[in-house]
Amino acid sequence: MLLLKACPKCGGDMHVGGDLYGSYASCLNCGYLKDVEDGDDVRKRLKVVATLREQTQKQAA
Ligand SMILES: [Zn+2]
């Protein structure tokens, strides 16, 4: 997911990614990294997207 012009350092676009240990946003322009805490809005939204995708796949099967 992209957060447009969300970088506090350069105002560039940030990409939100994650792993088992949590989510983070990284700036595509300057490389600035920001942790996204559990319970953060972004993480909630990612979870919703994953759930919707799961439901869509079940319906298709
Ligand atoms: Zn930046």
Key structural traits:
61 residues; alpha+beta; 1 helix; 33% helix; 30% strand; elongated; binds zinc ion
Assess the beta-strand content as a share of residues: 25-35%
Total number of strands = 4
Q: Helix amount, in percent?
A: 25-40%
Which descriptor suits the 3D outline?
elongated
Count of alpha and pi helical runs: 1
Give the total of domains.
1
Bound small-molecule species: zinc ion
Q: What would you say this structure looks like, in words?
A:
Strand 3 and strand 4 form a beta hairpin. The mean pLDDT is 81. 33% of the residues lie in helices and 30% in strands. It has one domain. The two termini are 26 Å apart. With 61 residues, it is α+β, with helices and mostly antiparallel strands. It has one helix at residues 41-60, and strands at 2-3, 14-19, 22-27, 33-36. It has 1 helix and 4 strands, in the order ββββα. The protein has a 4-stranded antiparallel beta sheet, with no helix packed on it. It binds zinc ion. Zinc ion (ZN) is lined by residues 7, 9-10, 12, 27, 29-30, 32.
